[in-house]
Write a structure and sequence with these properties.
about 675 residues, alpha+beta, about 60% helix, globular
Amino acid sequence: MFRELLIALKTYQFPFLWVLAFSLVLVRFVDVSPALARIHGFLVRRGFSVNHDLDREITRLEIVRIATGLVLCHRTLLTLLYMPWSATSGLEWMTAGGVMVLAIAFTAGFFTPVAGLALFLVMQPFDRFLRTNTLGTDVLQMILLILAFVPAGTALSLDAVLRSRRGRAGRILESLYARFGVPTIERISVLRFLALLSYGMLCIYSVLFHLTDPAWMQGYANALLLSSSYLSRHYEVFREVFTEFPGLGLRLAHATLIGMMLWEALLLPLVFLHRLTRALVVIWGILFFCVSLMLLQLGWLAYYEFIFWAALFWQARWLNAGDRAGVKLLYDDRCNLCDRTVRFLSRVDLFRVIRFHPLSRSRALLEQHGIDTNEALRDLYGIDEANGRFYKGYALYTMLSARLLLLVPAWPVLVAGRLAGLGPAIYSWIAQRRIRMFGVCELPAPLPSRDPILPKRGSDDPARAGRLFAALCVSYGIFLVIFTARLPHIESIPPLSYVNKHMKRYFKEAYETVGLAPINVFNAADLRMSEVFLVMERRDEEGEWDLLPFTGLHGQRLDWHESDRVYFGNSLAFRRRGRDNTCLHDWQLTLIRERIAINEHRSEVTDGIYRLRYFRQPLPDTNALLQYQFTYPGIEQTCEVEYDAGTDQVTRIDRLPAQAPVDGQPGAR
């Protein structure tokens, strides 16, 4: 086990760290800041960096950090829950537990720069060691590339609370943040660009890789993908649609495949060409992520991609960029209920949408907008700074729920309450009795601060603090050149083929640390993964067979696949290698024993008898697909064995059903 972990570290992190060390030495003698400033200037001119308010940009990235941490915590928890317990898995448990601790710290914002940098460095080798390394991990690396080197954690974090108290922990954190450097718009802009470049190069790799794949070049890959019982959530629906309406369904699948390849190939130039082409990239990406989430089964990839898209392109809605969505809120500063309401709104108003105006000091503002003082004492009033329109009472709360990000979940509830007439009635009843119910106050407390706490520039050498960021950019440039030289169809060019041979020896896959990843999905092997599948059942005390929630009777994934450890570490390995009719290869026993260990650990049973049934369902005929005809062949059982987990004995059963039952449940009896 330890040797496997060491190999994973040698593959990813050891080469990355010595390239980073070389870059740290280089930036001591070569000033790269002018080049980075020019990159930022280009990004501003092309409209990629439009939010120039540092406080809002930092808060935006803090939300991205929290969302990333929550997804990573959930994913790691499922890895732990579905990890088999055995004498050899202790190091795996420790590794996954370490990731969980870092993910929790990162989410809560506790020593955030350390947690973020540690996750950035260990996720690739740890995922490979745990057999959970996926395309989602590569997208996570792109997100961490931004957050770890901003650094995140200066707002909406435990670090911000501790630093504001100026105790011993606050002083330690102050020194820590200073060594990572002060967040700036320029730094954030360049990091977003590097992350986008990684995603764009991943897409280019995908397109070049699929140029030699007949399923992609002839246009039927999407049809096989959507009708696959292993890859599609709603394969039955798509099989029925393609069967009943083959002309329309298959042509639409072909058209979307062409659109996807064009989007991947042109993503980078379209982002910088014009704001309309950038909007096209963003919208197509969101639609693609929605398809990945709702129709396909790709693990946590879609969740990471949504967060990644937010880190790159979320620059307007709810951010109050340029103070163009501000609201002036007039409130009675002698009313306890109003004071509590204002404090609550202040805390959830992350992007300073609201400007609070107590009535005792806002007479001129009331007169300017023609608002009666007595009316203002009875209701909260909000004035839209963009158009001068004012809202009051229940309508104000409905409007604010649409403007404040954290209150968006309440917006449909408030709208429903308004349509039903119940919401305004309840609000009016409370408003008329607020003084009697909550009392008055003479000296309301000041509103809480909502600004990020940036490290003091004088607390450390600014040049030294920015050296890590500069070295990262130089290292990224080195890895970008190496990765470009390894692109499909480019790596075979004679000069590059010789160089690649030696670069692979020394650099290995270190470029994946910055998200530059070779993508190899939905290829011919993946599209055939539904052809042969294994159904596992355990005999209960009454002699009946209970289906393990691993693979269903049509080859579909069951509940255990919610864990990447089960999906990518076990199930995928079996499906990609086991596409022949041979019954129970030796290499399959390791995967089968792991599934049994998971079942016995989760159900608290030991040494059971298991039935393993192999089924085969060929793909639709390729020539028929090219003629826009679709017929999915039936399922046949090809093999059956019984496995005794106590004695590790395998018994071959040669009695097979003559044909699948009429109801389509193959081999059920």
